[in-house]
Amino acid sequence: MKELYILGTRGIPAEHGGFETFAEHLSIFLSKRGWKVHVYCQKNSGGDIYVDQWQGVHRINIPVNGDGTLSTIIFDWKATRDAMKRNGIFLTLGYNTAIFNILQRIKGQTNLINMDGIEWHRAKWGRIAKTWFWLNEKIGCYAGNHLIADHPNIKAHLSRTVPDKKITMIPYGAELIATSDETEISHYGVSARNYSIIIARAEPENSILEIVKAFSRERRNHKLLVLGNYSTSNPYHCMVQNAASDEVLFPGAIYTPTIVKALRYFSRFYIHGHTVGGTNPSLVEALGAGNAVIAHDNPFNRWVAGEGAMFFKTEDDCAKIFGTLLPDIKASFCMGEFSKSQFLLRFTWEQVLQDYEKLLNSWYPQ
Fold this sequence. Notes:
2 domains, Rossmann fold, 19% strand, 40% helix
């Protein structure tokens, strides 16, 4: 029986982000195909490491005190130390603590690293954090036996450091949402196709302020639903909320899968303001929901959303798009149909997970 150990996430079932969702799908998929899969899981508690099972997947639970950045680094260190005692193949999701993976390389373990996005480009990080991410990206390039990029531009970026043949491009996946329950959205003051949605962390690099300002320039007779946590103690959050008209709604962060799926499915447009990163999970999920997409104009978003989406560079661009597209029901329908075709072409879980298994098989120790 082939064995795989997955490091780099907070664990399964997914409760935090894209990597956890991916780890959940991959581990279940491979387990059903005869692999013995182990996922390292961070537990906010004291005590010793313990093992349990979830949907046929072995979870190696590592208790650490707290759930901040330092706790995650400690968790990664403990997971790497435990992994060095194991036999099989290893998949590390992210390079944030790639310095620890050097130990696996020295020991001779086979470790594939998904290099995520260009984290040190993000404006939210200070100089020390950016230096840490830059250093670990370089270390990850050499510590990993093979690298996985989730976007062609990420592969091109990594190719400046290591040979192209050391990198395989496999994008992120999502589920096709073919139908949903309209009653799930009734609590949020919206109705089907009479609102658009933003699902993103409230950070400047995600263009939320520009989008909200553009939408709020005039009466739209349409709602803009902005999901996420907004705090009165955060200056940027306050700027976004102060710029919003009464047609912009802030329901907070919503994690219930059925509700999020319904909010995506029944929205007119999905607005994606991310300016950096690779294949963004939220954008892929929007394609799987058949959303018409309005996105920030950059190579990452253009490759994912395709030419059936509309793109903006500035607040003025975004305002013009709202003015043109919101009254045009036919245009949004055509854009949504393109999103579905783009999703089926590149981003189904079946394609993505099969590509991962093929790559893992090619590297499995003989």
